Amino acid sequence: MSEPLFSKKNLKLLSDPINNSNPITVQVLGICSALAVTAQLKPAIVMALSVMAVLALANVIISLLRNTIPNRIRIIVQLVVIAALVILVDQILRAYVYDVSKQLSVFVGLIITNCILMGRLEAFALGNRPWQSFLDGIGNAAGYGVILIIVGFFRELFGSGSVLGFQIIPDSWYISNGGFYENNGMMILPPMALITVGIIIWVQRSRNRKLIED
Amino acid sequence: MDRNSNTYTFIYAAVMVVLVAAVLASAATVLRPKQNKNVEIEKKQNILASVNIESTFDTAEKIYAEQIKKQYVVNSKGEVIDGEDAFTVDLKKEKAKPVEERMLPVFECQTESGLKYVFPMRGTGLWGPIWGFVSLNDDMSTIFGANFDHEGETPGLGAEIATTWFQEEFKGKKILDESGKLVSITVKKAGQDAPAEHSVDGISGGTITSKGLEQMLLDDFNSYQEFLMKKKS
How does it sit in the membrane (chain A) (predicted)? Predict the structure, then answer.
């Protein structure tokens, strides 16, 4: 353990998934939940934090157990760890942020099936030390969360004219009040989330040419 | 021990399952009271919404205590049953009983436009239960407000019953016809003919949920029929 906690290599575990190997825009994992919970910013943020908590903890637990897990049931062990953590998160949300938990409803449970989680456990935590696994978990969840938050921000702004529930577009702009503006109902629906993710991918690739496949 | 042996695998799996079960069970037990409280507050918000009083999660308890002056349980003959708490009656259990044995909760709310009676309802949608609260004016016929919710109806289709536009439709509709007979409210399909004051427009693509809601209103108003007639006269 001569390596410092925040060595260059370790920091790369945090920053890489936010940009160069972003789970959503580069690896294209976890799309379904990115479409489902981003109609408003608040559930998007809560979902991002929940995934972060589950992924970081699951990574650490699997990494701690990595030398004891019987190889033949390792996928089952990973699933049990994820499922247990997700149920814990769900219970806590239900107790402390009830309205958000109602909005997220089934999607918290679906964190279990989020491919990002299994992917990270199988590809990283099983072969790395707990601290590195923790950073990898935080990094990947942050990469996922950043996209969710960007999408949620634009969908709520153009779909409902508000951000985090606060009205941003002035009331007097609306056609119903004699103005010229109307909320775009399409933004509330999942297809526009996909298109928004597409635009993010486009912007990211045009700035970072390395990511463009031949 | 050999990590690939069957014994090791079995022991590992068994220990893991027991540990996880213990952790989850204790978490559920510790958080249960707080979760139940949340459900209770939501119910209060829904009751208030049915008499067109807006409340937030934080203010619901206070407003409820101020506005809902009386709550009691009646039986199918419209007689008040003493010693029962209307708020904690579990409609799911009550609806499993025959009508004569049901406990039927009633909530009274004194508003600026007079005394309102709130009736809880419960029925079946397409994917699961639907429920709600309907408030009547003191003529026991005109709907003052309605609030519906559901467990898992399809978003954009059946789930529309929980939206304002659908619930607004109910305001001012009448559940009794001119002769005082209970006709409840018809949830119309496109092109279906029904008198305007006894019907609302259904939801396109949400036919089964709409029909379920119509059935729920009819069934539950039916069980309150005696009570309605008593209060009306």
Answer: Multi-pass membrane protein
Total number of domains constituting chain B: 1
Closest CA–CA distance from residue A3 to any residue of chain B (Å): 30
Residue A1 counted as domain residue: no
State whether the Cα torsion A184-A189-A191-A196 is positive or negative.
positive
Q: Indicate whether A180 belongs to any domain.
A: yes
pLDDT digits (tens, 9 = 90+) for B154-211: 766 788 898 888 999 999 999 998 888 888 999 988 778 888 889 999 888 788 999 9
Q: Cα-atom radius of gyration of chain B, to the nearest Å?
A: 22
Q: Is B45 part of a structural domain of the chain?
A: no
Residues of A in contact with B34 (CB under 8 A): 95-96
The answer to whether position B28 is within a domain reads no
Distance, CA of A201 to CA of A199 (rounded, Å): 5
| Subunit contact A84:B23, Cβ cutoff 8 A | yes
Residue B216 CB-half CA count within 13 A: 28
| B chain contacts of residue A71, beta-carbon cutoff 8 Å | 3-4
Model-level pTM?
A: 0.74
In a domain, A15, yes or no: no
> Number of structural domains, chain A?
1
Best to test chain B binding among A98, A99, A108 (most B CBs inside 10 Å): A98
**CB neighbours of residue B119 within 10 Å:** 22
User: Domain span at residue B216?
Assistant: 68-232
Is residue A2 in a domain? no
Contacts of A52 (CB under 8 A, 6+ apart): A137, A138, A141, A142, A145
Residue B138 lies inside a defined structural domain of this protein: yes
Predicted local distance difference test score (pLDDT) of residue B1: 67
Tens-digit pLDDT profile for residues B101-121: 899 999 999 888 889 999 999
In terms of CA atoms, which chain B residue is nearest residue A189?
A: B156
State which residues form the domain around A167: 21-204
C-beta atoms of B16 and A95 within 8 A: no
Residue B80 lies in a domain: yes
